[in-house]
Amino acid sequence: MSSAKPPSYEASHWLVIHGDHIPGKRVRINYLEAYCRAGSTAADWGQDTVVRHQTQVISINEDKTVLRLRDKVSDGLIVEHAIKVCGDEFEFVISTHNPTDQPSVAHWDQPCIRLGDFTGFPDRGGDLND
Fold this sequence. Notes:
The chain has 130 residues and is mainly beta. The protein has one domain. The chain contains 2 helices and 9 strands. Strand 1 and strand 2 form a beta hairpin. The longest helix has 5 residues, at 45-49. The protein starts with 7 loop residues before the first strand and ends in an 11-residue tail after the last helix.
């Protein structure tokens, strides 16, 4: 069994998982694309769904097998992420803390995985839904 290569985290929330054994050699994930409100699956994405957030890279260990991120959601919610390489797999450990006295409006979150290269349909520079 081959080992996964260390993930990288790029500007604009892109988590990239690399591996020679992965079709296309990598999988790009918009991590996290959005935190979302309850009942938002039938709502306007920009107006009624998205709860804004900012992501900060906290650390990546020396051998680049553990990446730690912190999200600050606009309503005060703090979300800590530890993304770990475990042999040929990745482990996502997520903890959430609400330091405010108000319930968070974020009820779910959404990573957006780009599978074009993986499935043999690479990005052609057009619609990301191609």
